[in-house]
Amino acid sequence: ELFDEEGWLRTGDIGSRDEKGYLYIRGRKKIMILTGAGQNVYPEDIEAELNREPGVQDSAVVGLQEADRIKIHAVLLGDISNAKELVARVNSRLAGFQKIQSWSLWPFQDFPRTIIRKVKRYEVLDFLRKDRVPEAAEEQGGAPILWRILAEVSEKALSLIRKETTIQD
User: What DSSP designation does 106 have?
Assistant: First the structure.
């Protein structure tokens, strides 16, 4: 089960060969974004471009379901004064099918990460879908300051605080 019919170990990576037979790892199968047009988008390629921009500490690119299609969504971490211009600059360097269609700024000190410091994309995506504070952000005290104050004053867990939470809640 660990090997395919050609004897390759199934690692979950997607690769391609060039005309000389060299193997290139494109990305992880589980994080690849399949567009409505059938194009494979590898978030790592887009993140590499985003992370070259001044002020960007890190980024996470995810496929965000919106109505009947998946959008390429960039989540930006850092001191970013004009995200719209930044995304436009990056998009000018990307292929048409890779272009960032929406973006947001990460409101915490850092992304939730694995032990080996990789971004936990499923938690980022979960936050975008439900506006939930990731556990890692809560543990690091990385929630927006207003959320932390509201949690303290209301004596509620930070994980229960949402954008729409009011003082009466």
Answer: -
